[in-house]
Amino acid sequence: SQQGEEDPQALSIQEGENATMNCSYKTSINNLQWYRQNSGRGLVHLILIRSNEREKHSGRLRVTLDTSKKSSSLLITASRAADTASYFCATDAGSNYQLIWGAGTKLIIKP
Amino acid sequence: KAGVTQTPRYLIKTRGQQVTLSCSPISGHRSVSWYQQTPGQGLQFLFEYFSETQRNKGNFPGRFSGRQFSNSRSEMNVSTLELGDSALYLCASSLVGAGSQETQYFGPGTRLLVL
Questions:
Q1: Residue A38 φ then ψ, to 5°
Q2: pLDDT tens digits for range B45-80
Q3: Which positions 68-87 of B are in contact with A (Cβ < 8 Å)?
Q4: What mean pLDDT comes out for the span B87-93?
Q5: How is residue B81 annotated by DSSP?
Q6: Is B85 helix (H, G, I), strand (E, B) or coil?
């Protein structure tokens, strides 16, 4: 079942602009992760934020988590063509050894 | 350290046939998860194995099965293939498994086309 829902489904911006993607989920979580997938290939882990954290940074990435609203956002600053990919959020809602995935946001960076 | 490898990378089968996909996790990782990814359904969890035991299973019919060997390598099998089984099958490995605040490391996937 899908717990997370990414918004928007697709996003097209100019190179150099900032890209923001949102993820909403339904149940309480222990942590939330963001992954990137380039054109039908394997997913690559970007960042993990724990339920007791509100914000986390990694290079040009900034993730926020609002557990009261059950939502997270991923901000990519100064976007590059290489950022063109699909971005997925995944939540860990318990100890059943399963991540619950959102449907993803397809990001296109125009040169 | 070598990444997660999946074989074969591409596969074409016909309806009714069966298929076996293989996944070799990162050395030292004992948890392997399998996912089916389709454009319409996103990433769907199939099952997770740890130390040769299936710990969790998604909502897929019994035609989908898997196993894990003592060296942590895993295989999944789909019998009596249907057109709807056409998808990208991804495996991911981690040290002890999702739910432990671990990163999952994904393989490149096996793209299965059922004709």
A1: -90, 120
A2: 999 999 999 999 999 999 999 999 999 999 999 999
A3: none
A4: 96
A5: -
A6: helix
- H/E element, B109: none
Q: What's the CA gap between B107 and B92, in Å, rounded?
A: 6
Tell me whether B51 touches chain A (CB under 8 Å): no
CB atoms B92 and A98 under 8 Å: no
- Which residues, given as ranges, of chain A have pLDDT below 50? 1-2
Contact B73, B24 (CB under 8 A): yes
Q: Which residue among B48, B98, B106 places its CB closest to the CB of A43?
A: B106
Residue B73 and residue B5 in contact, taking contact as beta carbons nearer than 8 Å = no
B42/A44 CB distance under 8 A:
no
A49: closest CA of chain B, how far (Å): 9
Check whether B102 has a pLDDT greater than 70: yes
Q: How many contacts, defined by CB atoms under 8 Å, are there between A and B?
A: 69
- CB contact under 8 Å between A96 and B31, yes or no, is no
Strands (DSSP E) contained in B41-104 are 42-50, 53-57, 64-68, 74-78, 87-94
Between CA B99 and CA B51 the distance in angstroms is 16
Indicate the pLDDT class of residue B99, thresholds 50, 70 and 90.
low
